[in-house]
Specification:
Layout: H1 3-12, E1 23-27, H2 53-66, E2 70-74, H3 84-93, E3 97-102, H4 115-122, E4 125-129, H5 135-142, H6 146-159, E5 171-175, H7 186-198, E6 206-209, H8 216-224, H9 228-237, E7 252-255, E8 261-262, H10 265-269, H11 287-290, H12 301-304
């Protein structure tokens, strides 16, 4: 039993369990145009993993059969999967709300220019990664020139109505700390983002704060810098029992590119599929059992419960 499990049992009197299945989160591949230093999946230009249209159709069948209302699409860079538009259009035809997690810079890649307008036409909510509001911090994590490319993507989305009051097109940004530290106050960060980006002509709806997960490329960095144990100790000390109720794993099921089911995108990295009491592939999706399953946890779960939690 992990020490995270022990902590949860002390507080809840039993294991962490699902509350419902409100969201189907679909990771459609690890291919990405960037190799960000904080990426828990180690996504990048050399990754070959990609969800097939057949697996996407199995996911759409699960949505249509169960009435799941939200489909959350992530990667890698989702836009680099050639069947992304098929998945989005299929989910929207079923009446689901669709979220796409974009790194923004991919919108400047050849052949990607039409995605902002497609997102608008489909009513997609965009959750855009922008690790910081300062160019130097973003470029240090994502590579030289990526901040300006991100701004270009945001300007294109704004021009289509995203982030603007009354347009009905939600644009949320994601902040990651610039290293082995926990996020500060979400409200203070959001206020600072609004001020700094407004000066550059950018508006948005809200800011999510994500602590860096000690997995993938970020874990490799921590190991090289001999900071892994210190970071893990920091997140353990910052454990906040009030975060347990709203943990994302309690309200969603995550689908890997090959159709395997997980409690979250992070469990993919350590290959921890959903509890054995449930079918573990999207082709055998069982919402009743998944809605009452035990959540499979490990030490990396302390990151999601540190401080104010991962919003």
């Amino acid at each position: 039993m992990s020490t995270f499990d022990e902590k949860v049992r002390e507080i809840l009197g039993g294991p962490l369990t699902a509350a419902d299945v409100a969201i189907l989160q679909i990771n459609i591949g690890y291919l990405c145009n960037m190799s960000c230093k904080h990426c828990h999946l180690s996504a990048g230009p050399d990754r070959k993993e990609r969800m097939s249209r057949r697996t996407m159709d199995e996911a759409l069948h699960a949505v249509g059969r169960t009435g799941i209302r939200t489909v959350d699409i992530t990667g890698g860079a989702p836009e680099l999967n050639p069947d992304l538009q098929h998945l989005i259009a299929g989910a929207r035809a079923l009446g689901a709300h669709v979220i796409v997690r974009s790194n923004l810079t991919v919108l400047a890649e050849p052949g990607m220019e039409g995605f902002p307008a497609f997102y608008r036409d489909q009513g997609v909510e965009v959750v855009a990664s922008l690790p910081h509001f300062a160019a130097a911090s973003v470029d240090r994590v994502r590579g030289g020139g990526t901040f300006e490319k991100s701004l270009q993507g945001l300007h294109r989305l704004n021009a289509l109505g995203y982030g603007k009051e009354g347009a009905g097109l939600r644009l949320n940004l994601v902040y990651n700390p610039p290293g082995a530290i926990l996020p500060g106050s979400q409200q203070e960060l959001e206020d600072r983002y609004r001020k700094e980006l407004a000066a550059r002509g950018v508006v948005f709806d809200g800011l999510f704060t994500f602590a860096n997960m000690a997995l993938g490329r970020f874990r490799d960095f921590l190991v090289r810098s001999r900071g892994l144990e210190g970071y893990l100790a920091t997140v353990r000390r910052a454990f906040n029992p009030a975060t347990l109720e709203g943990l994302m794993c309690r309200h969603l099921v995550n689908v890997r590119w090959d159709g395997t089911l997980f409690d979250c995108d992070f469990n993919q990295v350590t290959d921890l599929p959903v509890d054995a009491s449930c079918p573990r592939h999207i082709s055998a999706f069982d919402p009743a059992r998944l809605a009452r399953r035990r959540i499979v946890t490990d030490e990396h779960c302390f990151v999601c419960t540190a401080g104010a939690g991962t919003s």
